[in-house]
Amino acid sequence: MGFFICLETPTKGMYSRAEEIGFFDSPSGRKIPKFQIRTIRELLDKGKRLRLPSGLLPQERVGQEARADREQGKLEM
Q: How many C-beta atoms surround the C-beta of residue 42 within 10 A?
């Protein structure tokens, strides 16, 4: 999967090219674009998110890392 985040509004040609790349069939059955284009304004002002397959969401990963840190033993000095 690829993401292109830009400052200015993308051209129709950019969107067309991204669509030509195709879709990823996620394990949940959703079709997710392999290449997604978003503007900074869409991400910040409009709250439009990048579409990710479930299981790859950053907040899910953070919980796993935090849990692993708690379970790690201390180094004896």
A: 16
Long-range residue pairs from 41-46, CB within 8 A, at least 24 positions apart, any chain = 43/5
Number of other residues whose CB lies within 10 A of the CB of residue 14:
14
Residue extents of the structural domains in the chain: 2-71
Please, which pLDDT band fits residue 16 given cuts at 50, 70 and 90? very high
Token pair listed for 68? 């692993």
* Global confidence as pTM: 0.63
Written as one letter, the residue type at 39 is T
For residues 9 and 27, give the distance between their C-alpha atoms in angstroms, rounded to a whole number.
Answer: 32
Assigned token pair, 10: 């993308």
Cα dihedral 67, 70, 74, 75 sign? positive
